[in-house]
Design goal:
Layout (H helix, E strand, L loop, with lengths): L1 H7 L4 H5 L8 E4 L7 H4 L5 E4 L1 H10 L8 H23 L5 H19 L1
Antiparallel strand pairs: 1-2
Helix pairs in contact: 5-6
């Protein structure tokens, strides 16, 4: 699903606003999904970004700030589901270090939230 979206949106929207043409690297959530599985997969909330702009946006949005314990549990559960989906996807494809890195980052994020 994400791969199709990236094929259909090959350029970073933030770079285009700056007058640059940079290939898309990741699908970003315009409004953070905060662990809501349905919101996570809602394409109208997606935007194509390069790694630079995605990392910059992510740094400005703390994942678990202001979340109560129940919301954090939901976030962790949804991250675990996403990690498993990504893991299954990796099993069906040749080695791709970018996808492996994404998998490990999602896993690290889930672990960090569990520790809070």
């Amino acid at each position: 699903m994400e791969e199709r979206f990236l094929r259909e949106h090959p350029l970073c929207v933030e770079c285009q606003r700056e007058g640059k043409l940079t290939p898309t690297a990741v699908v970003d959530h315009i409004t953070p999904h905060k662990g809501n599985y349905e919101s996570f997969w809602y394409e109208n909330n997606w935007q194509p970004l390069c790694k630079y702009h995605h990392d910059a946006n992510t740094q400005r949005r703390p994942v678990a700030s202001g979340m109560d314990k129940e919301d954090k549990k939901k976030l962790v559960n949804n991250l675990i589901i996403c990690v498993f989906k990504l893991g299954e996807e990796l099993l069906d494809k040749p080695v791709n270090t970018a996808r492996e890195k994404e998998f490990l980052e999602a896993l690290d994020k889930a672990i960090d939230i569990i520790k809070e």
